[in-house]
Amino acid sequence: MTLPDAAQWTMHAESTGRDYLIQVSVPEAPMPEAGYPVLVVLDGNARFPLAVAGREALTLRGPFDGTAPWLIVGVGYPDTRRFDGPARSEDYTPALPDGPVRDARGRRVGGADAFLAFLAQTLIPEIESRYAVDGTRRALLGHSYGGLLALYAALVDPGRFSDVIAISPSLWWGDGYLYDVALQQASRNETPADGGARVLLGVGELEQQRRPAFATGAEGEETPRMCDNVACFADWLGEHRPGWQIEHRTFANVDHGSVMWPAMQAVWAFLDPRPAAAPTSRHGRRGATDTFKMSPTASRSSNKTQQ
Questions:
Q1: How many CB atoms lie within 10 A of CB 40?
Q2: What is the C-alpha to C-alpha distance for residues 168 and 285, in angstroms, rounded to an integer?
Q3: How high is the pLDDT of residue 227?
Q4: What is the DSSP letter of 149?
């Protein structure tokens, strides 16, 4: 099976020493005057077809109308059916100061900066050389470890992506290291002032495993659910990045493995909003934070975690 108006090739990254499978889908919609906006999708082997199907089905205004004009770029790994666990464990995780270079499974970690260098210095220029794109509209989508990487990119290189989508991000990484990154920037007066970053965070309602966390439960629960962590981080970002547009979604009746199916609808509503917003459901409003408070410095355990 082939996708219409799609292409793929393999690229080598000097920064990571690794090859990547690049897949691109050109939208059927007419190209905007400024060029196509670009959606970069991590874990491309698994997520690229879903993102393309979502654009084709979820952005139609009518059965015979066009779709959203986003160019979709999947970043995956050669000879991989869905996920390359060792490769993504290294590419999508930030290096921790004096931290381990391998995780509990023996996989290398801490290569996020090298991977982001590949995106910025190699992939994006290649896409711009092949397609007419709008350099002011560039989105990054990731799930789990990919969501961690997307948020890390928003913090350390906020001008690179105008829109960042993190679904079930692995916020437990490094005992809440993303908080440390943001706070370090603020302490050095490096808080970005571009005012244009848009961030969507999403999580499944059933992601309730007890895990390392940075929020304190309302009823004595010291380690809250993952979905509480995501809501907490969304609220924390809203406070510490006032110029950013932060949205949070909790998806009903799905867990860590199935969350990307309903999340894709939220992704396209976020990137291609309707002229009139639909009423917000109880699962579509921004997560409440009055039942727990953030405690980034609280002690965290080393529970078995999902990625």
A1: 25
A2: 16
A3: 60
A4: H
